[in-house]
Structure formats: C-alpha cells, structure tokens
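Q: Hi! First time doing this. I have a protein sequence and I read that you can turn it into a structure. Is that right? Here it is:
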Amino acid sequence: MTNVTFSYPSRPGVSILNGIDLHIKAGQTIGLVGPSGCGKSTLLHVMQRLYMHTGGKVTIDDVDIKDLSISWLRRQVGVVSQEPLLFNVSIGENISYGKAGATPMQIEEAARAANAYEFISNLPEGFNTLVGDGGAQLSATSALDSENEKEVQAALDRARIGRTTVIIAHRLSTIQSADVIVAMEKGKIVEMGSHSRLMERKGLYYKLVQKQTLGKKANETEFANFYRQSVKKRVSFNRQQIPSTGGGAGGGGAGVTLHAHVPQTFSTLSQAPPTTIRRSRAPSAKQMAQQGRTFTRKPTDYALMRVMSDMSIPPPTPKTPKFSPHNIFELDREEAIAAEREAAEKENVITKAPWRKMLQLSKPDWWLLLTGLAGFALFGVLLSALYVLFSEAVEIFSNIDRDEVIRQARLYSILYAVVGFVGLIINFVATYSLCIAADRLTTRLRQKSFETIMKQDMSFFDEPQNSVSILTGRLAIDTTEVNQYLKGPF
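A: Yes, that's right. Below is the predicted 3D structure, encoded as structure tokens:
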C-alpha cells in the first residue's frame, strides 16, 4: 500500500485513511492496533476491495488490485470476523459457505483444522445438526473451558502457518508474537515494529498496552471483591450451624469446622487447583459433548466451586444434610429453575387483543368502516333478493301462454342483470373501504409498536424474548395478521 487515502461515499469530506504506507511480505503476521475509529477495519476493507481507495495504490505482487478479478481476489482471502454469523441451517452447510462448492471431505478437513471435528462428531446429528437462527440452538463456545480455549487458539495459530495474516487486535496479548505490529491513530500509521521494540519506544502501542493492563487489573480486583463478599455471605458455617453427618456404629460423629480461604485477587481465585470434589461434581466439556449436551459455566458458579475445593469437605452422600456445604449452593439453582419454569408458563399465556384499543386506533377511519359494513349488509340483502327473483322466475314456466312466458323471462333477465351490477358496485366499494381502513390501521399499529419499542430501557432488549428477530417479526407479521383479519377473504 502506497500513500493510500480513503473516504466513505456518504461522508466524502471526512478522510478515514490518510496516506497509509504499508508493505506486507508473504507469510508475515501483521497486527493492527489503535483506538476505536482509527481506521483498522477500513484498512482491511480496502485490502479486500470491499471499498475502492480514493487515492494512492494497493498492489499484490506489483499488480494493482483494480486490475485483478474481484472473484479471484475474494477466493484468495479468508476472513474470520469478530462476531461470526451462523445461519439457520446445519453445521456442515455453515462451514461450506466459506468456500463455494466445498465437498464433504473438505468440510471435515476444515472442522479438523479448527479443532472442532471431535465436538461436532459427538453431536447426535453430527454435521447435520441444525444450529438455529444466529446459532441459538447450539453455541459454539458454550462448552469451552480454559483448556479448550487454548486448543482453539492453537488451531488458529496452526492455520496461520504458510499464510499472510492481518489481525485486528482488541486483546493486545494475542499479537505479541506477530512479525510486525502496526499502531494506527486518526487514519495514520504512527509506529510499527515488533512487540519488544515498540515497548522500548514507549509510544502509542506502549500506552495501549499499559492502559489495557491497568484496566484488566482493576476489573480483576473489583471482580474478586464481589466474589469475596458473596462467598463470605454464603460460606458461614461452624460447628453449631452444620449438623454432623454421622459415621460410627453408634451413629455419632464429629462436627465439621470449615475454614474458607477467600483469595485476594481474581487471578488467585481462577488459578486455584481443583480437587477431586470439583472433578466429581463438574463434568468436563468433552463429557458433556459425548452426552449430546452443552452448558454455560457462569463465573459465579466457577469461583464458588473453586472456594469449595479449597475446603476439606468430604464427598457428598445420600445422608448429606440439606443445608450442608454441598447442597447450599444447589438451593439457589433449584430456585432459579423454578423461576424460569414459572416465567415460561407466563409467556405461554395467550392474551386477548384489546378491541377497545383497536377501535380507538381505527377512529380516524370510522367512515370507511361504516361504509364497508353498510355495503356488505346491502350485499346480503341483494343475495336474498336474488333468491326471491329465482323463485318467481321458476313460476313463469307454468304459464301456457308462450308470449307471456317470453315477456316475463326478458323482465326477470333484466332484473337479474340490474341486481348483479348493483351487487358488483356495492361489493367493490365495501371491500375497498375495509382494505383502506385495514392498511391504515396496520400502519398505525406498526408506528405505535415501533415507538413503544424505542422507548424501552436497555434491559428490555437483554431478554431472550425481545431479540431483534422477534421484535422485527412482531412489526412485520403480527400487524399483518390484524390486516388480514379485517380484510377477511377479500
């Protein structure tokens, strides 16, 4: 890249990239760092020709990317985005989207390279397992512990071998081994070099590393303080509070005294060695996968189990008291499950539509509704009139006077035509009126619903039942059902 500049078409006056000069050798790993909005993502977009640079030159082996076939260029580039998108298809199909015309063998090889083949194979349907919209039915990282996470990172490191890699780093520790680290600020390259060299300069990269390190320590301290308070409240047992579990022939036994050690920092908390108790109560991710299940380990449960493992507590038995150290943490879980079940039952309750509110929203179009209802009422009267005319027309054939029969037949034919034409006009006006009223009501409902959604607190959107897809469906489908209900079969 030589003196590359870029501005988005929607904001031509704002320069995002300002004179970027960057040379990447084949097989190198380049790390891009910098504050938010400095142009890291835009630089990658220009490399992939998702956007054309407004100035300068971008070449691959001295060939301008403008002269390259865009389809060929895209086939040479693989992208791992920050938030991968999963479609509502099988795991195999999601993998195949990375390469057009991928064979089943290539899909399996890609899964092995990503260290995911064993996990996928242990699922009941294997590569045919549906992941749901956005991966809702199967979370790719829900069963990862620290060991699995290292394996995934190792798989990514292996995938970089023999390839030219450009990484946008948010966690600076992930690019310390990069060949070249590029620090950007305000669309310009401020400094570049290896990790050790940039740390010696104490420039932008050094400041970013220090800021992230200090922020991490502050978060760990705050996190550890929270868990210490939580543990102190929950683990407050002594001889009098914990009943004896019993042991000898006489049924007696010594009481249990707990000495809970609360770590001072989160790093100490997370590094506490697990004991046999923890392993027996917490199955590994691999065991969960073999059973066809996934789980999400909450930080609270993880930390508390670490503290429990530091205590000399014997394994639980069927006679373990309900309020023993083993069961005290299970009480909250049972209460949470009961609360979730109760919430699910409430969600399944179908609420009736408020007709009074619907009539109030339709008030501006009352004359259209009245016209439609009156029109269909008249149309019903016309149907009754047709039946009467039909019965009268049948009687004329009992007359022996031929001329009289012809005269009355012509009369009833004209009456049939008149009634049919009038019915056509009435039906058209009534249907048109109700359709217009229904469309206007649908527009109002969507506007009101959208306004209500936009006025909600952020916590509202954190609920699973209030996801973007569900709320969009309510705006698109629910209001349309009201529209179809008002229009009826017309």
